[in-house]
Specification:
Layout lengths: L5 H4 L10 H4 L12 H8 L9 H4 L7 H9 L3 H9 L5 H7 L11 H4 L7 H15 L14 E5 L3 H12 L3 E6 L7 H4 L8 H13 L3 E4 L9 H7 L2 E4 L5 E2 L12 E3 H12 L5 H4 L9 E5 L3 H12 L4 E5 L11 H9 L3 E3 L2 E8 L5 E14 L5 E5 L5 E4 L2 E4 L3 E2 L3 H4 L27 E3 L2 H4 L4 H29 L1
Parallel strand pairs: 1-2, 1-4, 2-3, 4-16, 6-14, 7-8, 7-14, 8-9
Antiparallel strand pairs: 5-15, 10-11, 11-12, 11-13
Helix pairs in contact: 3-5, 3-9, 5-6, 6-9, 7-9, 10-20, 14-16, 16-17
């Protein structure tokens, strides 16, 4: 058979998932890794099409057909080097990117009805193998330039920028509010999607390369933005967006109505073996409880699947639109259903009922119907009168998305420009904020988005900062 037509005779296949009853008992990743022959077989299904829509729709524009071909030919080290050339975290993207909406969802053979190439699983396999074989080389700093950079935020955007600028020869300091680097990779995403050693080995590589991490450091508390600017030649703000969106409904302040990120951070800290009071006292622990999660994105899926693993009595996900209009990954929805989560579609909370002691006991729900499309093009939900019901709940998790915090106030920098949504305003070409030498990238600029976009922004802003710093050094030399 023609090498580019293997997809006709070779069916699409993913690494096998553990049975739901088995995976519900722990926080290990739910799928095994491809065995080498299977990885090569699945990579060989790529048709090597003339216009690789998979690469076009990847924010990093990864050379996907090329490293698939190399994997199919058994040239795995070359495949890793090519994959690594455009991404600082390919094995992480392989695990948590919504491939069904990006590369795999735009695969040419998916359009032909044969099922897409399983790109994410191959990407994960390539770099996991590279780590095991010792192909992942240490970070080697470039020739010292005598300039330093401060990066605020140790999430994917900040870590990516730190890596590229360290390789370019800059002294790099990373400041983060948490006691471990990684941002949401470490504390926001559960282990069943991204085991934590996968993140920590990346961070350890950066530390070994001379990047200095200041963990547990809050800008505004431990130093103002101006003080950091005085320490460094340039600053990157890559804090992400952490402010939870609120629900306005009676009883929302009842005990047991909690924010998604607080819940997930508590669970991840417990997975690290930390002492966590909110877990021990049961306030952020779903064990034995009737749990209702409100929201339809990937964070909501992380919450419902975490609650199952914590031993919840029941887990329901409340979403105001239908399944087809859900923003989260359909694969995640399917995984949650397999694990016993009940979805309540076209339903919105009207209020929260509390028991005598002020703790939540139920969620009053109104059924919805989809009306005319809104400004985003999605059909807007509207109440269906007379359809109210109450769902029993003694833990309610709000997973409605995130907005930016008030950074100008937090950082003691009122002159830091923001737009009407509260995200940082930057020049589109330079990626610089309203403050000279202060750049910004990732979710704090674009709003809550995907990890792969944060990596792309980190790569782009590293180029812009490098150019600006070289110009600054040249000007100083001329002035001297």
């Amino acid at each position: 058979m023609n090498a580019t037509l293997k997809f006709v005779g070779t069916a699409q296949d993913y690494p096998s998932k553990r049975a739901a009853d088995d995976r519900n008992r722990d926080f290990r990743e739910i799928a095994d890794r491809f065995a080498p022959p299977k990885a090569g077989e699945q990579a060989g299904r790529c048709s090597q099409c003339g216009v690789p829509y998979c690469s076009v729709h990847c924010p990093l524009h990864n050379h996907i057909p090329d490293w698939l071909r190399l994997t199919a030919e058994g040239r795995l080290r070359e495949a890793y080097e090519l994959s690594n050339s455009t991404s600082t975290m390919p094995e992480i993207c392989g695990r948590i990117c919504p491939q069904d909406r990006l590369c795999e969802g735009n695969c040419v053979i998916e359009f032909s009805g044969h099922g897409s190439v399983t790109i994410g699983s191959v990407e994960k396999y390539i770099t996991d193998t590279a780590w095991e074989e010792g192909w992942v080389e240490p970070l080697v700093p470039g020739r010292a330039r005598g300039q330093s950079v401060g990066v605020i935020g140790a999430g994917p955007a900040g870590l990516t920028t730190a890596e590229y600028l360290r390789v370019a020869g800059y002294e790099v300091h990373v400041y983060d509010r948490h006691d471990r680097a990684g941002g949401l990779l470490t504390y926001g995403i559960p282990g069943f999607k991204l085991e934590k050693h996968v993140v920590t080995r990346r961070v350890d590589r950066l530390k070994a390369g001379g990047i200095v991490f200041h963990e547990g450091f809050e800008v505004g508390r431990d130093a103002t933005l101006d003080e950091l600017r005085s320490r460094h030649d340039a600053i990157l703000i890559a804090t992400g967006v952490y402010k939870p969106r609120a629900i306005k409904a009676p009883g929302v302040g009842s005990g047991g109505v909690v924010d998604a990120l607080d819940y997930l951070i508590t669970s991840n800290r417990k997975s690290f073996g930390d002492e966590v009071a909110a877990w021990d006292d049961g306030s952020l622990n779903a064990a034995g409880k009737d749990v209702v999660v409100i929201g339809g994105g990937d964070t909501a899926m992380d919450c419902v699947r975490t609650a199952v693993r914590q031993g919840a009595k029941s887990v329901k996900c409340l979403y105001r639109r239908d399944r087809a209009n859900m923003p989260g990954s359909q694969r995640e929805v399917a995984n949650a259903e397999e694990e016993g989560v009940e979805f309540v579609w076209l339903a919105a909370p009207e209020g929260f009922e509390a028991a005598a002691e002020g703790h939540v006991a139920g969620v009053r729900v109104t059924k919805m119907r989809l009306g005319a499309p809104d400004a985003s093009g999605r059909r807007a939900p509207e109440p269906d009168p007379g359809s109210e019901e109450t769902l029993r709940a003694d833990l309610v998790i709000k997973a409605l998305g995130f907005d930016p915090e008030d950074l100008p106030a937090m950082f003691g920098a009122p002159e830091l420009g923001v737009n009407r949504w509260g995200t940082l305003r930057v020049d589109n070409k330079s990626m610089m904020t309203s403050l000279d030498g202060v750049f910004a990238a990732g979710d704090i600029v674009r709003g809550a988005s995907l990890v792969v976009w944060a990596i792309r922004d980190g790569r782009d802003v590293a180029d812009r900062m490098h150019a600006w710093l070289r110009a600054k050094a040249k000007a100083a030399k001329v002035a001297a």
